[in-house]
Specification:
mainly alpha; MetI-like fold; two-stranded antiparallel ribbon
């Protein structure tokens, strides 16, 4: 079997696996979204396995059926927890599914703005706008000596008065455009050295027309590679921010009074689900050996990020093979 064929198989296989992972996540999300709102939008005090007198406080374990009671000790029904529950007795599958929607909208917005800033900055760099080039090249040195995550937190907190969602978009976008800009600038500089580019200039083609006719076709493949890689990076950054307690929506801390003297006081319960925010109480869950509320959102983020990485690697491999 030739090396070219092996590369082609790996490319197709990576894209196929990545696509199947995203399809699987989409199906699970659809199942979770179909759950009635009471199983993910309300807090519960305790549960009891049907047919027993046993009383258990959430989080409930995966693959368990519980008759669930509210804080007034009134039964609200029986529910099967496929992936378990969080500390408020809310179904994790439904909770993560509803958290995935705003999270992916955030990822889409951040990636789009990173691409926009990167393309504009790359265009300016390639046409000799020195300040942008200095900023872009300098960012590599500054960020390498300053924690990337800390810079994101500072930008988010600094722009929070404009709105928390907007602050996240701005903060996460401003630290990730450099790679796109360097790619765009490199492609433009490459095209400008080609014979057809010299001919176009001799004919008086303006910068914008030159970009549309001669540069844009060379940018499609590199930017197609950047999109899934950027999406993966933003997802991971969102998880890191959530773990450190920096998230979009509000949260409620379950106190002993609100839990009726429960043993899980101090758990942070999200009011508006978002994937990163679901990881905020991770350390407390782990300390109490409750792993499902951590693993379910963490695996959702990790699998989605891995799928985007596979797709990005497959697109880049195909591009490199075509160029060769």
């Amino acid at each position: 079997m030739s090396a070219t064929l092996l590369k082609k198989i790996r490319t197709v296989g990576g894209a196929l696996v990545g696509g199947l992972l995203l399809v699987a996540l989409t199906i699970l999300t659809a199942i979770g979204l179909a759950e009635p709102s009471k199983w993910w939008g309300q807090n519960y005090a305790f549960g009891s396995p049907p047919g027993t007198d046993l009383t258990l406080q959430p989080p409930f374990q995966p693959l368990t059926t519980m008759e669930v009671f509210n804080s007034d000790v009134q039964s609200v029904g029986t529910h099967f927890y496929l992936l378990g529950s969080d500390a408020a007795g809310r179904d994790l599958l439904a909770l993560v599914a509803h958290a995935a929607i705003p999270s992916m909208l955030l990822v889409t917005a951040v990636v789009a703005i990173r691409l926009l800033i990167g393309v504009l900055a790359g265009f300016a760099m390639a046409h000799g706008f020195t300040p942008i080039r200095v900023i872009s090249r300098g960012m590599g040195r500054w960020i390498s000596g300053f924690p990337y995550l800390m810079l994101a937190i500072i930008l988010i907190e600094a722009t929070t008065p404009s709105g928390r969602w907007i602050a996240f978009v701005i903060g996460m976008a401003l630290i990730g455009w450099r790679d796109v800009a360097e790619t765009v600038a490199g492609q433009i500089e490459y095209v400008r050295t080609q014979t057809f580019a010299l001919g176009a200039k001799a004919l008086g083609t303006g910068p914008l027309m030159f970009f549309r006719l001669h540069v844009l076709p060379y940018l499609r493949a590199p930017l197609a590679v950047e999109v899934p890689f950027q999406a993966s990076a933003v997802l991971v950054l969102l998880a890191e921010l959530g773990y450190l307690g920096v998230f979009i929506g509000g949260a409620t801390v379950l106190s002993e009074n609100s839990r009726g003297g429960g043993v899980s006081a101090g758990f942070t319960v999200v009011n508006v689900p978002e994937l990163g925010q679901l990881l905020a109480p991770a350390r407390l869950y782990v300390d109490r050996h409750e792993f499902a509320p951590v693993l379910v959102p963490a695996l959702a983020i990790a699998v989605a990020a891995f799928a985007f990485e596979l797709i990005g690697a497959a697109i880049r491999s195909r591009r490199d093979r075509t160029a060769a």
